[in-house]
């Protein structure tokens, strides 16, 4: 048994909470064999309460410590941040004292608890791992920021927007190139993202652990389907999701309505931007904002749509919809890194008319919709359970510790 310190920007999202459930479910799998300790910068009391009160989180972490938030930035700190073209999450230039205090706190906890491995969730927390740390360090990047920004650049409108994205891309490439120097293993959630990171940081040890789905939480139900309901879900303040919702509402939905006039589009998820909220003015479009449970909306849907045009990494929303046996129409980018085939587990379309035609096909052919949903469910059951992903991570940890210590290691 190891003592694993998890560093995260926020408390992990359980299946009942908004956000990616990747960190929580991987930690839950690791907690079956190891003691887990969590240090997080969580700033939302309500989110922390949701996490603590979720029965699923009860036995995952032996200790949860909420780190202090950074203080307001000084004028000088802001200028240092700008001069270095630092990423939005970096604090070493803007908040020097805070930055060093968090690094010192992590070293202190490692010594006090006898930590044997550090698991860092995302690049934003990797900055706080001091080079004096003497235990193996794993960084789970989820996806490649440089890949996401490269794709975003192609869709940016306006010179200032393109300039901001380009500068962010330059810094993202610098950080992804350097990350291998401060950790022993880099994990991504798709081979596409791993290839980008590997190209930037060739000497780094990398691997892919796909996203999974909580098969006990996301279960099928064929009794509540609304034949005119289309659903897209996610955090709607996240730019790729915002872009997808706007794209579907403006470019695809009118084409569907030309053949299925009673269809309604439901945008389900927290933090909808102003532009997404404005879509409510269009007849047949619903924007829910935060919901306590996304499952009732997805279960009622006749078709789940995922019209993402930008972004990177494996999309949990696709896996969750398929676990609920929903026939799904998606863009090719939406299934990056997933072993899904067009016209087998999903229908793929990258142009508005093609996307609309495939949605209409599923709305008007119940047998085809049921077969697609069944194929999707079978695929996630066979390949994308969190239990399977946890075993991959456990094997990687064993290998890493064994190579560090020069001896064999097994769970106990």
Structure commentary:
- This protein is of the alpha/beta class and 412 residues long.
- It has two domains: 230 residues, 3-Layer(aba) Sandwich (Rossmann fold), CATH 3.40.50.2000; 155 residues, Glycogen Phosphorylase B (Rossmann fold).
- Strands 3-2-1-4-5-6-7 form a seven-stranded parallel beta sheet, with helices on both faces. It has a six-stranded parallel beta sheet with strand order 10-9-8-11-12-13, with helices on both faces.
- Helix 9 crosses helix 13.
Summarize the helices and strands and which ones pair or pack.
Layout: E1 3-8, H1 22-30, E2 35-40, H2 45-53, E3 63-66, H3 75-83, H4 96-113, E4 117-121, H5 123-126, E5 137-142, H6 145-155, H7 159-178, E6 185-188, H8 191-200, E7 206-208, E8 229-233, H9 239-257, E9 264-268, H10 274-277, E10 285-289, H11 295-300, E11 303-306, H12 316-323, E12 328-330, E13 347-348, H13 352-364, H14 366-383, H15 386-405
Overall domain count = 2
Instruction: Give the ordered list of helices and strands.
Output: EHEHEHHEHEHHEHEEHEHEHEHEEHHH
Strand content: 5-15%
CATH class of the largest domain: Alpha Beta
Put simply, the count of helices is: 15
Radius of gyration: 22 Å
What is the CATH fold-level name of the largest domain? Rossmann fold
Q: How many beta strands in the DSSP annotation? A: 13
Approximate shape: globular
Question: Would you identify the CATH H-level superfamily of the largest domain?
Answer: Glycogen Phosphorylase B
Poorly predicted runs of 5 or more residues? 408-412
The CA-CA distance between the termini, in Å, is: 5 Å
Q: Give the averaged pLDDT, no decimals.
A: 90
Largest sheet, in brief, is: 7 strands, parallel
Structural class: alpha/beta
Strands ordered across the widest β-sheet: 3-2-1-4-5-6-7
- State the share of residues found in helices, binned by percent: 40-55%
Q: Say what oligomer this is.
A: single chain
């Amino acid at each position: 048994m190891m003592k694993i310190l998890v560093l995260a920007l926020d408390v992990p999202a359980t299946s009942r909470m908004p956000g990616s459930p990747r960190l929580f479910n991987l930690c839950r799998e690791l907690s079956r064999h190891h003691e887990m300790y969590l240090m997080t910068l969580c700033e939302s009391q309500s989110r922390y309460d949701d996490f603590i009160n979720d029965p699923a989180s009860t036995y995952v972490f032996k200790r949860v410590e909420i780190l202090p938030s950074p203080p307001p930035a000084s004028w000088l700190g802001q200028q240092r941040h700008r001069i270095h073209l630092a990423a939005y999450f970096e604090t070493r230039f803007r908040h020097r004292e805070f930055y060093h205090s968090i690094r010192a706190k992590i070293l202190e906890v490692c010594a006090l608890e006898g930590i044997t491995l550090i698991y860092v969730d995302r690049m934003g927390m990797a900055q706080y791992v001091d080079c004096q740390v003497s235990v193996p360090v794993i960084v789970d990047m989820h996806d490649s920021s440089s890949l996401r920004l490269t794709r975003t650049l192609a869709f940016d409108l306006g010179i200032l927007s393109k300039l901001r994205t380009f500068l962010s891309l330059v810094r993202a490439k610098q950080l992804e190139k350097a990350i291998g120097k401060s950790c022993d293993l880099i994990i991504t959630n798709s081979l596409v993202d791993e290839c980008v990171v590997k190209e930037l940081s060739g000497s780094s040890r990398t691997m892919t652990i796909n996203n999974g789905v909580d098969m006990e939480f996301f279960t099928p139900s064929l009794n509540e389907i609304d034949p005119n309901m289309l659903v897209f879900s996610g955090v709607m303040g996240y730019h790729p999701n915002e872009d997808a919702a706007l794209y579907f509402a403006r470019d695809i939905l009118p084409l569907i309505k030309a053949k299925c006039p009673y269809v309604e589009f439901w945008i389900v998820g927290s933090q909808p931007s102003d532009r997404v909220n404005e879509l409510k003015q269009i007849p047949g479009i619903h924007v829910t904002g935060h919901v306590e449970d996304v499952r009732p909306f997805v279960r009622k849907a006749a078709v789940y749509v995922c019209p993402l045009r930008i972004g990177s990494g494996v999309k949990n929303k696709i896996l969750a919809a398929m676990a609920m046996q929903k026939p799904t129409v998606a863009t090719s980018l939406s299934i990056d890194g997933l072993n899904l085939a067009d016209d087998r587990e999903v229908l793929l379309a990258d142009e508005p008319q093609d996307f609309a035609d495939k949605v209409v096909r599923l709305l008007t052919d119940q047998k085809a919709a049921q077969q697609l949903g069944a194929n999707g469910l079978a695929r996630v059951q066979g390949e994308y359970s969190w239990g399977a992903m946890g075993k991959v991570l456990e094997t990687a940890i064993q290998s890493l510790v064994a190579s560090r210590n020069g001896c064999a290691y097994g769970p106990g």
